[in-house]
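Morning!

As promised:
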Amino acid sequence: MQCEIITIGDEILIGQVIDTNSAWIAGQLNMNGIEVYQATSVHDDPEHIRVALRNAGERVDLVVLTGGLGPTKDDITKKVLCEFFQTSLVFHEPTFELIQQRFKNRNIPLNKLNRDQALVPEICTVLPNRAGTAPGMWFEKKDTIYISLPGVPFEMKQLMQQEVLPRLKSHHKIKAIYHKTILTQGIPESMLAERIEQWETSLPQHIKLAYLPNPMSVRLRLSATGNGGDTLKLQVDQEIEKLKLLIPEYIFGYDKETLAEVTGRLLLERKQSLAVAESCTGGFISHLITAVPGCSAWFKGSIIAYSNEVKQNILGVSAETLRQYGAVSEQVVREMVEGARKKLNAGFAVATTGIAGPTGGTEGKPVGTVWIAIASPNHTTAEKFVFGDIRERNIIRSGQTALQLLRRKIINENPTR
Amino acid sequence: MQCEIITIGDEILIGQVIDTNSAWIAGQLNMNGIEVYQATSVHDDPEHIRVALRNAGERVDLVVLTGGLGPTKDDITKKVLCEFFQTSLVFHEPTFELIQQRFKNRNIPLNKLNRDQALVPEICTVLPNRAGTAPGMWFEKKDTIYISLPGVPFEMKQLMQQEVLPRLKSHHKIKAIYHKTILTQGIPESMLAERIEQWETSLPQHIKLAYLPNPMSVRLRLSATGNGGDTLKLQVDQEIEKLKLLIPEYIFGYDKETLAEVTGRLLLERKQSLAVAESCTGGFISHLITAVPGCSAWFKGSIIAYSNEVKQNILGVSAETLRQYGAVSEQVVREMVEGARKKLNAGFAVATTGIAGPTGGTEGKPVGTVWIAIASPNHTTAEKFVFGDIRERNIIRSGQTALQLLRRKIINENPTR
């Protein structure tokens, strides 16, 4: 079964609203083995909607429309659907009762616009909306199913889960599909591609690989289609085992995990705690850490030592080291990380100092130069990186690199739990 | 001029990634008087991309494509473009030099995949990408312009702003349009709408208002169209003067300014400095501050006191206060802010302590309860807020609210420079 999603509404095409509905619907359909062929955003314009409906009907056997079902004048989807299916609006008593009930519960008087929401195209199957006033509608024409849903994400989601997906599952034979995303950090996309080329080429025909890079990490998604979900999962897991042997040091997690979350779990398992000293990353590492619910079980706190004064007075970096080597140096990052570990009384610590940019670079230390140190109960390591010349990126890369170095050090020094 | 946006990539159609590019591009084009007719998401499939290109070319005079330009096998846009424009790939020396420079700066060896990114269709105008390796490409066929951009939002945005929009503006007659965005913080969208309703209704016909809410702030964009850019600017500025009288306390800046940037400028003008103590915001305020280039001129540093131990040992919060009132209390936030001001030797300080969630709430202190304190050289104020129950949102709201309170305190205590 193949689907096309059509979102209706000017707000998306003037850039006022990001279309989150399409991705959500696509994710739900995919998990149920329905492939989404295309997603199209069109204006609140009858002719435009008609053309989109006609084109989609020629390409796929399932069309999901969202939007344009509100009570106001600019919502015209229902009228266009009537023309498209050569039917007319009729009053739907059960829908009207649902609407009345909603207004009664909220103690709001009903007006004509609300009453008109109970008008539906005669030939459709009405899908009751328990989260709002506009019902969903299910049409069949030739071999294609057309489903019209309200655009409000909350209402659309309820209708999809309670009405649309159960119906699709019971009415139609659906192919099994299984996805797993492998998260990597510390290797650029092109180097990664080179390193795993042979593995990629030898993947079975029914397992596809996609590269999904973002400033935080490069994600690799494996998607397997076929019969029997259990077998697919097994096959994908086998391929991941092979991949792990090729790039063991770069893989930090799977699917929706974050590097901070994974690192926190490692610390928790080892009953260890963490302190942070940040100069150039300026709080970003701490922000990544505290985005993880429950991090207080392993995270003590941080010193954001943006000025040399704070590096000296709070972290205990010596004035002499700062003078002799400069704030962006191996000597200073080592004193910072050890100061943080001691002052905040933690098992592990991580520290950064660098030139985030856009200014402040010199010949010997260009913008993007960053020193990162990791301290464990056993010893301290420091490493120099040269990232790019964009401040925002340098902060993100430094933060993620620091967490990745920390993760590896925890594993290397305490390989078993 | 009418545009169609085509986003290429399986990741959107399987629901793994939300397409934020289309809305951003649409917003930018709209601000420059170019209407977006349709946005279409298609698979990494040659035939599908070809059909989308052909259909778009028949409907509009500008087609913007994003995605599918990466170095890996699944990125096929360049090949399809060659077929569509009946041209072939040639090696583009300036692009190769840019790529080489990027790799050299980062001290990473270049491989064949990277080198291949310098191959471009012979007939296109290359748009140099200063944020990544895949160049943008500009084609003209009949009366339609086709622009192909990388899908990575950061790279796409740089190319749009530095290359595409200036070229569109100079090559094509575009109606005069003037935008100004007013940035507010601290008032929900619906209350804001109510408060400025009369002003909104009395706006001249050729000046449109758009509400652009996001978790950081509610932005109000005024767009004036007509002839003569100077007159339009004058008219918009007059409307803003009226608006300022209605909501003086909520407006913090304009257009691309951030609250941290504006606040930093106020401190700098007054030769003041800032220290931060964060508990529930966990580094987010510091991250907002250090996102501002040059902030070292006024920002000293922060203590992220996530554990009570750090609140006591580094900030000097008394054990007795913590025991008696709990970490989320007026007494503790006051001791935190004064500790930070003193320990970090700053003029002003801001502190937060609260329950970000999802767990940790109690009947008296539900999830979302946050205490924020501001200390100046003169005195300390503290205020309690109850935000929602979503961790991420609570952190963002607390951070922005803290900066807004700080901004107001700076102005109130030092009204003139």
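Residues 259-413 of chain B form a domain with the Maf protein fold (CATH 3.90.950.20).

Hope this helps with the figure draft.
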